């Protein structure tokens, strides 16, 4: 498949209406999802929404992979969400610094509810419900925001943004960042 360019903040494609997928299991849909996977992994991201590669469809993927700073309880398999619907947000508000492939070299604190439940479809049209917290729940909400024309900077005041270098040196491995990234709830149910 192909590695696609990730469009940057300010590009109008990030604000356009994203249409629902009507036909599942098609070669076009499989190709789009594979391009998203290849692009996400190439850019070393843990999630990607179709609008980020200038495709205005209701599709996002997540894959918090293991890294030097992200270990076992902050890791999850590749997941594809098509036509996702937010069902529930519960729990305490938790702050995690977020970054984005569309916003080069900036990270910011974003407060979100700790537990998210989303209903969606897989590539073959099988409906499922995913409930998660930690970094997985966070990525699900972050990517869902992209489908609604939002970026993490909509939730993080400009004066609180930090450079990538500052994030890596002072925040990425902080107790709060690591604690709030732990995935303790990860429930997948086919509907």
UniProtKB/TrEMBL annotation:
**Top-level class of the enzyme under EC nomenclature:** hydrolase
Q: Name one GO biological process term.
A: translation
Molecular function GO terms recorded: metal ion binding; peptide deformylase activity
Instruction: Return the protein name.
Output: Peptide deformylase
Locate the active site: 143
Q: Which family does it belong to?
A: Belongs to the polypeptide deformylase family.
- According to the record, how does the cofactor bind? Binds 1 Fe(2+) ion.
- List the catalytic activities from the record: N-terminal N-formyl-L-methionyl-[peptide] + H2O = N-terminal L-methionyl-[peptide] + formate
Q: Which residues does UniProt call coiled coil?
A: none
Q: Identify the gene encoding this protein.
A: def
CDD domains for this protein: Pep_deformylase
HAMAP family reported for this sequence: Pep_deformylase
PANTHER family per UniProt: PEPTIDE DEFORMYLASE (PTHR10458:SF22)
The cofactors it requires, by name, are: Fe(2+)
Q: Where does Fe cation bind?
A: 100, 142, 146
Per the record, the domain of life is: Bacteria
Lineage, highest ranks first? Bacteria, Candidatus Dojkabacteria
Keywords per UniProt: Hydrolase, Iron, Metal-binding, Protein biosynthesis
């Amino acid at each position: 498949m192909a590695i696609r360019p990730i469009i940057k903040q300010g590009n109008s494609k990030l604000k356009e209406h994203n249409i629902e997928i009507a036909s599942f299991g098609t070669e076009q849909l499989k190709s789009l999802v594979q391009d998203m996977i290849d692009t996400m992994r190439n850019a070393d991201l843990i999630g990607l929404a179709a609008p980020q590669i200038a495709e205005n469809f209701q599709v996002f993927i997540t894959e918090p992979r293991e890294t030097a700073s992200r270990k076992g309880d902050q890791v999850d398999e590749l997941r594809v969400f098509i036509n996702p619907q937010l069902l529930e947000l519960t729990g305490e508000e938790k702050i995690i610094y977020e970054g984005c492939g569309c916003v080069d070299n900036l990270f910011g604190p974003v407060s979100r509810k700790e537990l998210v439940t989303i209903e969606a479809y897989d590539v073959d049209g099988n409906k499922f419900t995913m409930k998660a917290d930690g970094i997985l729940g966070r990525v699900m909400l972050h990517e869902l925001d992209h489908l609604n024309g939002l970026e993490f900077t909509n939730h993080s005041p400009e004066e609180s943004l930090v450079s990538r270098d500052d994030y890596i040196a002072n925040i990425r491995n902080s107790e709060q960042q690591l604690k709030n990234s732990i995935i303790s709830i990860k429930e997948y149910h086919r509907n």
